[in-house]
């Protein structure tokens, strides 16, 4: 199998974008009104990061719409709620602050992409501002925006992601407990793992 390893080779396969086209001009250096409105309606964001050696990671963050707070035209605050404590994203940010964000709104095929630099804070005032039911996040990821732009709908249109009639039957797939039981060769039955997970979800969402 041959691989493309140079910019010139890549451009023999793909067209060079027109510098006057929307694909280039749409990239903003700060959040405009539309970007802010999108973030305020988004309940879900994917955060791409990498460590000092270039090992990449993508993690999901989700909460009620508007959970990611806009501090100003160039700054977004994303609360870090209780999770599995792997801290992949946070560990990466410490050594490499570059991040890529992909904000989604259910039912909307277009997405908002944001690239920037992130820092981690436990500032009491900001954590309290992002609290849910009196429970502040453990920490907050503060992203300085370097680029923001809307991404076209083709990927979501092709995948039919928001069309329930295209979704597989959930019962046809294994539960997380079953998956972990097989992957980790756990001694306890998979249904016990599922019950433990359900209990953890109920008690530690925020």
Number of strands: 7
Remind me, CATH topology of the largest domain? Pnp Oxidase, Chain A
Radius of gyration: 20 Å
Q: What top-tier CATH class of the largest domain fits best?
A: Mainly Beta
Largest beta sheet: what is the strand line-up?
2-1-5-6-7-4-3
Query: Please, how many domains?
Result: 2
Question: What name goes with the CATH superfamily of the largest domain?
Answer: Electron Transport, Fmn-binding Protein, Chain A
Corresponding CATH architecture of the largest domain: Roll
Helix content: 25-40%
Strand content: 25-35%
Taking the sheet with the most strands, its summary is: 7 strands, antiparallel
Give a written overview of the molecule.
This protein has eight helices and seven strands; from the N terminus they run αααββββαββαβααα. It is an alpha+beta fold and 206 residues long. The chain folds into two domains: 7-159, Pnp Oxidase, Chain A; 168-203, no CATH class. The protein has a seven-stranded antiparallel beta sheet, covered by helices on one side. Strand 5 (98-104) and strand 6 (111-121) form a beta hairpin. The termini are far apart.
């Amino acid at each position: 199998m041959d691989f493309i390893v140079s910019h010139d080779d890549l451009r023999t396969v793909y067209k060079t974008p027109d510098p006057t086209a929307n694909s280039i001009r749409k990239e903003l250096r700060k959040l405009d009104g539309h970007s802010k409105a999108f973030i305020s309606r988004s309940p879900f964001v994917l955060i791409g990061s990498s460590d000092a050696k270039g090992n990449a990671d993508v993690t999901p963050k989700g909460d009620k719409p508007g959970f990611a707070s806009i501090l100003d035209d160039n700054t977004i605050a994303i609360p870090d709620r209780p999770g599995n404590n792997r801290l992949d994203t946070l560990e990466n940010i410490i050594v490499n602050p570059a991040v890529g964000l992909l904000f989604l709104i259910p039912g909307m095929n277009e997405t908002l992409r944001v690239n920037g630099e992130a820092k981690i804070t436990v500032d009491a005032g900001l954590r309290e501002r992002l609290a849910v039911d009196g429970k502040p996040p453990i920490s907050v990821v503060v992203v300085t925006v370097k680029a923001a732009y809307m991404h076209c709908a083709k990927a979501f249109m092709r995948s039919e992601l928001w069309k329930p009639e295209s979704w597989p039957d959930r019962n046809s797939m294994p539960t997380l407990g079953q998956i972990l039981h097989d992957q980790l060769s756990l001694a306890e039955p998979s249904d016990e793992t599922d019950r433990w997970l359900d209990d953890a979800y109920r008690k530690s969402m925020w």
